[in-house]
Amino acid sequence: MDTTRRNQQTAHRARTVLGVFKLRIGFVIMITAVTGYAVTPGAGSGGLPLAVLALAVLVSSASAGAFNQYVEYETDRLMARTRGRAFVTGELRHTPAWLALIGFLLAGSVAAAWSATNPLAALYVFLGAFFYAVVYTVWLKRRTWLNIVVGGLAGSFAVLAGAAAANPQLGAVPLLLALVLFLWTPPHFWSLAIANSDDYAAAGVPMLPVVVGTKRAAQVVFVSTLALVGVSLLPLLFGAGPIYGIGALVGGAHFVRKAWQLARAPSRTTAMGSFHASLAQLSLLLLAAISDALLA
Predict the structure, then answer these.
(1) Residue 98 and residue 67: Cα distance in Å, rounded?
(2) pLDDT in tens, 143-158
(3) For residues 85 and 20, what is the distance between their CA atoms, to the nearest angstrom?
């Protein structure tokens, strides 16, 4: 019984620590880097350099996620969605040792990307973490509703890191996919912000629905989604194949439909519907891009 209890406690502790690093988000960002590599003309089969780059992007994203939770633990106390986080509850001590660990992980991931690929790819790995941890979390989040717009560059840099690892001379398709990631982040996050607008208002965070109201924010989400889907089809003009086109159309149509429902009747239900549709759209787009490149 004691052994079972200890094992359960150890597993719980591990889940708590891993939760600080936002690994689910990191995994998605890692896939965007792999996509950037796959769609770049001249990319080889990948092998060790791609594996190291993917891991570097995952670790750098994890370091940025941990920094976000470390810096925002006071604000997280004010929001129902985040008040159960480990630094807030005290399950993990909020000590400077975390900053040392975060810095070590980021430096290690950038160094690994540099060693396995090239300096440009390593720079993009660093910039992805920097834009989320510092530009978004520290500089912009509490100052302007444009916070997530600029912060959305974090995902774009992951695409560029993968593309630069394959070929430092970036082509049109990876650049367009980086633009897609940039345009995807605002409607994705604003949908979630509409669903949790009371939380953000209570915490004094100027997310778009707090600044302009839920109805106007929902309209902006719909227009932003239209722009996103339009840009996501542009790679078809530069060599992307039919698998990509099908993924972009199906995922995009689903997201547009959910965003339209949100614009027509803003509520937590329609906002979460739009949020989940954004995840489905991005997942389908990335998988279609990789499949298209592999089968070309």
Answers:
(1) 8
(2) 999 999 998 899 999 9
(3) 8
